[in-house]
Write a structure and sequence with these properties.
With 515 residues, the chain is of the alpha+beta class. The chain contains 13 helices and 27 strands. Helix 3 crosses helix 4 and helix 9 runs parallel beside helix 10. The protein is elongated.
């Protein structure tokens, strides 16, 4: 699998597209004035305790108080409160020796929040979920500092190794290295990316995170809540930190500043990858040049088409997302069960991509095409599990029910990505909307393929004059390519009465073919 990162800087912010094998799988939008990003750390002030919810509302400077549940307090909350108090009472710029900090006993998993946050104290918190709709941010006190190879968790001395590292010998090796170099009172989780890395590489990553923890202490000294203590690094660098791997083969940026920052970050974490970074200086839009915009227009919206002619209908309600799978015009065999399985497997791959792309969260209910055989239902459930493996969000896939429904839960960390794929209608000066012109050629080609499969001969396509020029100009033109592919004559006629995105098919008797 090849991975590409296309970064488009605009006056409003930065858009980041992640492509896997040329297919758009993630789209991130980082606004210039964005506050309260995932991972940001704040000194907050507890404003209200709600025993009924076993939660507290904390002022972190957002228009609405942030939400902190008892389960997100961290077992070391007493140590965090003590640490926060000690740090805030230090003179500006002064810190204490954290290795000599005395860690307090852990709290119970099933305790009460009003017994822990007594007196509405100041507390160090981290953004667990960005503000969504009318809700404020959701917080956690389980402070973690992610690096390239390790994650540091203060207030404990635990060393844990990612379960995705399967080799017992490698796990023992990594455990010994970290135990030998880690400072006191800092727990360490070894990430999957650490597999095979040297002691020097792991130690360097750990030293960087230890330096970050000292910066947090420095920023806390003399601070008054609410105040931001530490910002998560930019989206570009955080994506590279989490995803950079040997199969990453291209990073393209259209902004000099971001290019320099990315180059500096790559130099630090993976100097051997510097050659994959490129600066886009052409006159064309970067997303158009790399085919991202066309994929955005084709992938968002209520209906999502697939190569076989099958399509998804994606609906959103207040409580959940509903996805309906509909069969296409292509059939792999005369066996209905086999056709249903093939379409469902194709839909499963597209659904897994859509969940990442739109960042859909909460409960997702998928209505697949009905199948009778249990082994086929299991095949589909196993395939969905495997396809979701690359999704970084926490998720759970349940088996297909007797009604043919699959339920998926997926962690939602930020607002859902929602892009309007309609354009102003050129015929009515903006009083209506039509499908994007970027996917017009694909729509015509799909319908042409279907009609020829239905044994239609001598087809004529009538389109707007601008579309006529687009389909017939150049050598070989798109019309010529279609003729070579289907080995039959295809006429394209221009009609000024048609609007830009309108097209119709006629057979050799000049009778219109209804699609």
């Amino acid at each position: 699998m090849t991975k590409e990162l296309i970064i488009n800087a605009t006056p409003q912010g930065v858009e980041i597209a992640l492509l896997e094998d040329k297919q758009l799988v993630e789209l991130h939008n980082e606004k210039v004035d964005a506050n309260f990003a995932l991972g940001d750390m704040y000194l907050g002030k507890v404003k209200k305790l709600i025993p009924g919810l076993n939660a507290a509302f904390v002022d972190v400077g957002f228009e609405k108080d942030a939400f902190l549940h008892y389960t997100d307090l961290s077992p070391y909350i007493r140590s965090i409160l003590k640490f926060t108090n000690l740090s805030v009472n230090q003179k500006k710029g002064e810190t204490f020796d954290f290795s000599k900090f005395k860690v307090e006993p852990e709290i119970l998993k099933t305790g009460k929040i009003n017994e822990v946050l007594t007196g509405k104290p100041n507390v160090l918190v981290q953004i667990l979920k960005e503000p969504i709709a009318a809700k404020g941010p959701r917080l956690t006190c389980e402070v973690s500092l992610p690096g390239r190879f390790v994650v540091v968790t203060p207030f404990n001395d635990i060393v844990a190794v990612s379960r995705k590292i399967h080799s017992g010998e490698e796990r023992k090796r990594l455990q010994k290295i970290i135990e030998a170099v880690k400072p006191k009172n800092l727990g360490v989780i070894v990430r999957t990316a650490a597999e095979g890395k040297s002691t020097a590489e792991l130690h360097e990553d750990l030293l960087t995170l230890e330096k970050t923890w000292k910066t947090i202490q420095m920023n806390l000294s003399g601070a008054v809540p609410p105040t931001r203590i530490l910002s998560e690094q930019g989206k570009t660098n955080s994506i590279l930190r989490d995803l950079l791997s040997p199969d990453f083969n291209k990073i393209v940026v259209n902004d000099k500043k971001i290019f320099t920052e990315t180059k500096s970050y790559l130099q630090k974490i993976a100097p051997d990858k510097l050659d994959i970074l490129a600066y886009h200086s052409g006159s064309n839009e970067i997303f158009d040049t790399h085919g991202v915009m066309k994929q955005i227009k084709a992938s968002f919206g209520k209906t999502v088409n697939m190569p076989s002619g099958a399509y998804l209908i994606i609906e959103h309600t207040e409580a959940l997302h509903v996805i309906d799978v509909n069969s296409g015009y292509k059939s792999v065999s005369n066996n209905q069960e086999e056709n249903a399985l093939e379409t469902n497997l194709e839909a499963a791959a597209e659904i897994a991509r859509q969940l990442r792309l739109r960042d859909l969260g909460g409960i997702i209910v998928v209505d697949f095409i009905d199948m009778k055989l249990m082994e086929n239902k299991k095949k589909l459930a196993d395939a969905m599990e495997e396809l979701m493996r690359t999704d970084r969000a926490k998720h759970s896939v349940l088996p297909i029910t007797k009604f043919g429904l699959m339920q998926i839960t997926r962690q939602r960390m930020k607002p859902e990505m929602n892009i309007n794929t309609s354009e102003l209608c050129p015929s009515c000066n903006g009083s209506g909307t039509v499908s994007s012109t970027l996917i017009m050629e694909d729509e015509i080609a799909k319908n042409l393929n279907y009609l020829i499969m239905q044994k239609h001969q001598g087809l004529t396509i009538i389109v707007h004059p601008i579309m006529h020029t687009y389909l017939t100009c150049g050598f070989p033109s798109r019309r010529l390519k279609w003729m070579w592919k289907y080995k039959q004559k295809i006429k394209i006629i221009a009609d000024t009465s048609y609007h830009l995105t309108e097209f119709r098919f006629f057979d050799n008797t000049d009778e219109e073919i209804k699609l």
